[in-house]
Amino acid sequence: MDLSAINPILLLASLMVAATPILLAAIGELVVERAGVLNLGVEGMMITGAICGFIIAVATGSPWLGFIGAAIGGAMLSLLFGVLTQFLLSNQVATGLALTLFGLGLSALMGQGYLGIRAPSFPDWHIPLLGDIPVIGPIVFQHDPMVYIGLLIVASVWFFLNRTRGGLILRAVGENHDAAHALGYHVRRTRMLAIMFGGACAGLGGAYLSLVRVPQWTEGMTAGAGWIALAIVVFASWKPGRLVLGAYLFGGVTVLQLNLQAAGVAVPVEYLSMSPYLATIAVLVIMSAGRAPGSLGRIFHAAR
Amino acid sequence: MIVLDKRPQPSRMWSYAAPVLAVVLTMVVGGILFAALGKNPVEVIRTIFLDPLFSKNAWFYRPQLLIKGAPLVLIAVGLSFGFRAGIWNIGAEGQYIMGALCGAAVGLAFYPMESWLIFPLMIMAGAIGGALWGLIPGLLKVRFGTNEILVSLMLVYVAESLLAAMALGPLKNPEGMGFPGSRNLSQYPSAANLELISGSGMHWGVVAALIAVIFAYVLLARHMFGFQVRLAGQAPRAARFAGVNPARMILICMGLSGALAGLAGMFEVSGPAGQVTIDFNVGYGFTAIIVAFLGRLHPVGILLAGAVMALTYIGGGIAQSNLGLPAAAISLLQGMLLFFLLAVDVLTNYRVRFSNRVAA
Question: Major place of localization (chain A) (predicted)?
């Protein structure tokens, strides 16, 4: 074992990259849950986004178009969840599970013939001046644009939820849908929009895996990232700021584990690869004090 | 404008009709999907749903129905208790793996000794392994208030890694010329879960599944615990006033579903699969969730739903080899089935009315 082979700067730099797909999916789900909807289909939407983005990026040669396609694909799939839970009033837990199972099958079917192909490259940005700062430059300012877009989305969500009228309405709908309805807000419309935003973000997160992180298509490649995103929303107590902390923590565990594998630690690879999931459980145990939105997971049926 | 009125009682007629309608809708939409893939939809649907039972090769496929159906029914019966009470164990796949690992480990520990005691010990080990794995999310929920959905699911990935580690490490066949995977239990008479009637597909797992169905039926219909489960699901507040202990309910439901999933894994590893391998689990734990819902969380319904799902596995396999249908199309079909069921269920709980009044 040679721990000196692990370069701390590279480790911290790849941490941001490893955290980005989970961060993207989690910020979408955070908005969905603040609107009072529990969508357990993040994993399904992520992997659908991964293959949609991959197909479009390969067909057009443009990763940017791939990301847009992934967002649309994720949102389309979430629409299915939205119609079922908001209009056909189905159980949200069961529907979310169905969405995951369906998404895994759908992506595998769509991805036939795309195995073993490399995605078009998505170059890193070398931000001038900031990127040249020693140590901090390579860690923070030399990544691909999606890393920063992810952080921008988180900041925008924070601003939207806490500083705009629309955010207030969304939170009202999530805390008490009956009261929000009585005040004349459109509960279903708000929730459908939130669900679609969640789907689009999950799609982006999935595409980040297939276009940047891996960058290839393999069946079931999300490997639980969607579920970890759900756990991070709980960890963050439904607050965007803490979401970043949570995602980077998991990025850190993942990267460290991969680095230890590469450094040839005396522990078999199979045990090391458990660590992100065990860390998720540990975090859920430590951080289960947050208060969930009041109407989370409850079916809204307006009495007339 | 379509208006939904909540029914005071779920419609009895629709609760029976909804799964049937969902299967029919899945066939129709699945047919359209297969047509889009360039296959003859009628032929594919016939291959998946009828050929395993009625084609001239059906003698070969019918035993498969029991082999594939038994683990699905066994797991789904366990899950149905929790799902009724609002306790969501969705990590049955992990409990299935742990049951198989514990059962196989006990069997392999005795190799090559022969005794009639070994197989019952393996059954117990399988059930205990699954139950303990299922109790982890249960205990964490009771003690720390963690979400059992997320924890049980995370433990699936942990169990999968553990399975790989065991197949490559401690349980590896020392005479396996370095290939991953354990000794073949089906060639070790004391530990083998062989067919009880040759050529029927009937092994101990099938017997266990049938016993589980009867046991669950009696428990739900005649026993205090079954009443409490139904009460906790339908009226949680009333259940608390009636003295139902939520912590006890969580632990029993998680432990019970874990034990049954573990049993399913143990019967699979000692019978049809034969050995512990890296890719031992094939998703029965997740498909069983669909089976539980399709069977209306009722033991008899689950038995029928398990048969339908087993059919899609076998028929899907035939369609894959004979018609070149991609394997993914079958898992898509299974996911679709759950979607349609959840969608159609609106008719069970609500009355649809057409109203001229425009809603506010």
Answer: membrane
pLDDT of residue B17: 87
Residue A278 lies in a domain: no
Interface probe for A, chosen from B146, B282, B290 (most Cβ of A below 10 Å), is: B146
- Partner A contacted by B282 (CB < 8 A): no
- pLDDT, average across residues B81-104: 93
Residue A237: inside a domain: no
Query: Are the Cβ atoms of A285 and B140 closer than 8 angstroms?
Result: yes
Split into its structural domains, chain B has a count of 2
Question: Looking at residues A15-34, what average pLDDT do you find?
Answer: 92
CB-CB: which of B90, B169, B334 is closest to A268?
A: B169
- Together in a domain, B274 and B333: no
* pLDDT per residue as tens digits for the range B142-192: 998 888 888 999 999 999 999 999 988 888 888 877 778 888 887 787 777
Domain coverage including residue A81 = 20-114+126-131+138-224
- Looking at residue B360, its pLDDT comes to 46
Contact A90 B342 (CB under 8 A): yes
The answer as to whether A73 is a domain residue is yes
Same domain, B59 and B82: yes
Tell me what the mean pLDDT of segment B207-228 comes to.
90
Q: Does the structure show a pLDDT above 90 at A289?
A: no
Domain that holds residue B223: 38-325
Count of domains observed in chain A: 1
**Is B32 an interface residue toward A (CB < 8 Å)?**
no
Query: What is the DSSP-derived secondary structure letter of residue B3?
Result: E
Joined together, the tokens standing for residue B87 give 């306790």
Q: How far is A260 from chain B (nearest CA, A)?
A: 16
Question: How many beta-carbon contacts under 8 Å exist across A and B?
Answer: 134
